[in-house]
Specification:
This protein is 41% helix and 19% strand. It is an alpha/beta fold. The longest helix has 18 residues. The structure holds 3-isopropylmalic acid and magnesium ion.
């Protein structure tokens, strides 16, 4: 088995280094190979997703990804910006199913900006379609308007589109996931305004008939954004398109107060996957050794479970993380009075120590 390691930019290198130490201590039979991606790859090779990096990712069973991006690249032509690397990986590997859990850890309930009673025990799974929608729809570009409110003016446009198979397959992923949880799916759309999302809603409803044991409801995206802050625990599995999923998953992650804790997985139809923390590259704290590595460490656990068929190793990582939290160690993002503030490296050390200790004591 082979893991492609793509640390990327900003805090990416620091947090991925800790995840690798955790994987190393598990002593499993896989190879890891690293490559540059994002701004780091642009600096070295003039492109955010060099051919060699893409090939490494394609040939691997799984990709462990850090984060990409920095404000200093905002002026580059779009195809050269760091974000294009992650979009290119999603597209080229066909990673259409994005799992973004939003879990509130018991010890961190006070880190949320919502009242503790609203989020204690929160456990939502957002399933975001990742290779379609307005993100990838053609045509797109700039031109001179021939109609609209200002004919003759300069305009820009993107295309929102979904095909039937694209909606069917992500709907199935959501229903299957719900079967392993509380058997409820909320499909989020904007069917009251958009043709694409009326189509989405119709197809999700059809596919839902194959899963009579799963309860399906539909919600408009604006209402979903509101319900997420009003009564987040009413949700279980949320399935939605690429753009709505981008927005709602950030909202849901922040509800937990600990975006630095949340892993994510992006899978294709052969279970090859890319695993990355839900947070970004945080250039403001990069290089300071203060970033929280737990989301990346937990992403490595998801990788072991979903793509590398090592569920026991995944359990070991997850229980080590819980015991480290229980022991009171916190990076700055989740620190509160009465806990001990540690840096990236110390947090990684603590997870490694928790795994080793459990190994010794059985
Ligand atoms: C995410 C990010 C990306 C997205 C960016 C970096 C292209 O926001 O993974 O949610 O919009 O999908
Ligand atoms: Mg996003």
């Amino acid at each position: 088995m082979k893991i492609a390691v793509l640390p990327g930019d900003g805090i990416g290198t620091e947090i991925v280094a800790e995840a690798i130490r955790v994987l190393d201590v598990l002593d499993l039979p896989f190879e890891m190979e690293s490559a540059l991606v994002g701004g780091a790859a642009y600096e070295a090779h003039g492109h955010p997703l060099p051919d060699a990096t893409l090939k490494l990712a394609k040939d691997a069973d799984a990709v462990l990804f850090g984060a990409v991006g920095d404000w200093k690249y905002d002026k580059l032509d779009r195809p050269l910006r760091p974000e294009q690397a992650i979009l290119g990986l999603r597209k080229n590997l066909g990673l259409f199913a994005n799992f973004r859990p939003a879990i509130c850890y018991e010890q961190l309930v006070d880190a949320s900006s919502l009242k503790p009673e609203l989020i204690a025990g929160l456990d939502i799974l957002i399933i975001r379609e990742l290779t379609g929608d307005i993100y990838f729809g053609q045509p797109r570009g700039r031109r001179t308007a021939v109609d609209g409110h200002f004919p003759g003016a300069e305009e820009a446009f993107d295309t929102m589109r979904y095909s039937r198979p694209e909606v069917e397959r992500i709907a199935r992923v959501a229903f299957e996931a719900a079967r392993k949880r509380s058997k409820r799916v909320t499909s989020v759309d904007k069917a009251n305004v958009l043709e694409t999302f009326q189509f989405w809603k119709d197809i999700v409803t059809e596919v839902g008939k194959e899963y009579p044991d799963v309860e399906l409801d539909h919600m408009y995206v604006d209402n979903a954004a509101m319900q997420l802050v009003k009564a987040p625990k009413k949700f279980d599995v949320i399935v939605t398109g690429n753009m709505f999923g981008d927005i709602l998953s950030d909202e849901a992650a922040m509800l937990t107060g600990s975006i630095g804790m949340l892993p994510s997985a992006s899978l294709n139809s052969t279970n090859q996957g890319l695993y990355e923390p839900s947070h970004g590259s945080a250039p403001d704290i990069a290089g300071k050794g203060v970033a929280n590595p737990l989301a990346t460490i937990l992403s490595a656990a998801m990788m072991l479970r979903f793509s590398l068929n090592q569920p026991e190793a995944a359990d070991r990582i997850e229980s080590a993380v819980k015991s480290v939290l229980a022991s009171g160690l916190r990076t700055g993002d989740i620190w509160s009075e009465d806990t001990k503030r540690v840096g990236t490296r110390e947090m990684g050390d603590a997870v490694v120590a928790a795994i080793t200790k459990k190994t010794i004591t059985g």
